[in-house]
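G., the chain you wanted modeled:
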Amino acid sequence: MNKQYAMTQQPVVVENEPTITRNKLLPLLHYMFATVIFTLYGIEVCPVLASISPVNLLLPLMLMYPVRVLLIKQFFAKQSMSISTQFKLDLLLFVVTAILLTTFNIMTYDAPWHSSGKVLVGMSLLGLFVATDLALASERLRINDERFSGEFSSARFISFSQKFAAMAIFVVVAIGVVLFMVVSKDLTWLLEEATAYDPQTAKLIILAEIAIVVGIILAYTIRIILSYTGNLALYLGHETRVLDAVANGDLAQRVPVVSSDEFGQMAHGTNAMINSLLSYQNELKVTRDASILALASLAETRDNETGAHILRTQRYVKTLALQLRKHQDFSQQLDDETIELYYKSAPLHDVGKVGIVDSILLKPGKLTDDEFVIMKTHAQIGADALLVAEKQMGSNSFLRYAREIALSHHEKWDGSGYPNKLAGDDIPLSGRLMALADVYDALLSKRVYKPAFSHEQVKEIILKGRGSHFDPRIVEAFEACEMEFIAIAEDFKDGK
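Predicted structure as tokens:
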């Protein structure tokens, strides 16, 4: 079942605790790093910032992260922030801090325009880098959260290429502005204050500032590019994984829908396609099951058995199979899908009886030897009919099991059964399971030619047939789950 999750409203819940811890630490590390590099730049390079007391410089920077935490707790205590809201919050904190710090510098120290502008643009650019990387990290966490698998809002659609281009243009422009302000400030300093230094020293001071600024910008830019490409690889990886799973018949997988761009649209489209396939598959299964029961019931109406017989026997088969897979010989063979196919195909075990004439099929007394020879052909008749359907539909595990059961459920472990006198493991497992289930129900039920036996009487007969009529391991499984057999017989008894 596909659960719808709004990408901007649902909380992120994942089981990978190290991933959660890293995601919580990343904002703190980003804010700490931004505070450290801006402080070092101010103390070591920028004369205006260097003249500010450490408390006045560090205090607004150090308050950004606690303010962030308080705002999140105050407004998003019961639900997680959307990625866009988180981005805006982080960027706003840096911009507001830059404005406060710039205003303080101008009012207190009469800072020149190039220094004030450099602080304002530099802090804002730093905030853009931090906000973008944290947003990409949150997006990455949600990509790996399979609960984000459904809703896509076309109203918020922004092309991935447009976002990337806008980010790249903004960064390039901001870099140009910052470098212009750095060079402008350095030229002013060179003309007014550099006379106290020899030319080589002045040159090194200017180059050091430019190198620091360029290095920080390049480091953040590379980080953002790697985050973008990493998220892109995750998107495509999930899309490929899910499509491979669908190609192999697994319709339980979904692609996480996180972004409101082409990748979110593609993921949403993939999920919609899977949901449609699942809907059609379920509809086909319901139609198949109804057709099976109708066909099996038609066969039963021509017999001395009731429609409840097919309901009981298919449940006996499933109960036996579930118990039998605990045995080391069958643990690999009896997976959930195989057991379900046994359960679904079991009602067709006697479908071949439609080919038996009424004078034999409905005879209330014991059949003659010649009549019994004809009666035994129902196994082959049913298998042949199912084989025609199987050839028409191509490879189909359900029809294959149904044909196995129809053909082999009267075979016996010692080789004395019919129609092919198979013995031991040469008898398909589906037929061996059906053999015990069919005999148990036939003996337990009242027929025109015999009274109903008690469970204990039937159990005794089955135990006597261990190693001759029935696979000993299946008899052992029957003993282990006989109470379930009794409950099934009671729940689906004739006339109920």
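The radius of gyration is 38 Å.

Shout if anything looks off.
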